[in-house]
Amino acid sequence: MQSAGRRLTELAGVQMRTGRHEPLNGNIMQIRFHCPTDKCVAIIEYEPLAGCGDTIKCPRCDKEHAIDVTDSMRQRDTVDRCAACNCRELFIRKDFPQVIGVAIVVVFGLAAIYYFTISVLIAWSILAAAVVVDVAIYLVIGKVTTCYACRAQYRKCKLNPDHEGFDLATSEKY
Ligand SMILES: [Zn+2]
Ligand SMILES: [Zn+2]
Q1: Better pLDDT: 124 or 26
Q2: Ligand sitting nearest the alpha carbon of 59
Q3: Backbone φ, ψ for residue 65 (5° rounding)
């Protein structure tokens, strides 16, 4: 039988299996967080979170980090508080890779500027196309739940209706 827990990637390129429980209901929630150890730059990814034990070991600094997977995570595939730091405040945002967003603006923007000297109609069409591409990407990408305190990210889970979009005032508390 396949190990329940599966670490995917880590900056050091180390892969390991640390699962101890079988996930329930086929939950595939993924957690991704920066290793809290001082000066350790590893990004730890683990899925399914429901199959995780009490700790996740960082493959770079070898430290076991306490993980508190709640009943809500195990049974309903929903984040109710952060498993890495127990913070109850999390926000939801679109999982939009900013590099792609900027690239679209730059490429289409330059093309539009170039074509403005030739045909205003073409230039406006290019800008319209940029908007369409942006919207299309926005619609197909998923959402990520993020902890305000430690910025742990949760993917492939059901969204918690209690969580809202990013709030600067809440963020500044941490
Ligand atoms: Zn580490
Ligand atoms: Zn957290």
Answers
A1: 124
A2: 1
A3: -105, 130
C-beta of residue 45 within 8 angstroms of C-beta of residue 31: yes
Token pair belonging to 88? 């109850």
Ligand nearest to the CA of 44: 1
Residue 14, CA distances (Å) to 6, 20, 34, 96, 153 in order: 12, 19, 15, 26, 20
Name the pTM for this structure.
0.72
Residue appearing with tokens 């290019």? 126
Q: Which pair of structure tokens corresponds to residue 143?
A: 């959402």
pLDDT at 32: 96
Of 43, 38, 148, nearest to 85 by C-alpha is 148
**pLDDT higher than threshold 50 for residue 12:** no
**For residue 90, how far is its CA from the centre of ligand 2 (angstroms)?**
8
CA torsion sign, 128 to 133 to 136 to 139? negative
Helices (H), 58-163: 71-76, 98-116, 120-140
* CA–centroid distance, residue 7 to ligand 1 (Å): 14
For residue 153, how far is its CA from the centre of ligand 2 (angstroms)? 8
Structure tokens belonging to residue 26: 């086929």
pLDDT band per the 50, 70, 90 thresholds, residue 25 = low
* Residue 143 identity (one-letter amino acid): K
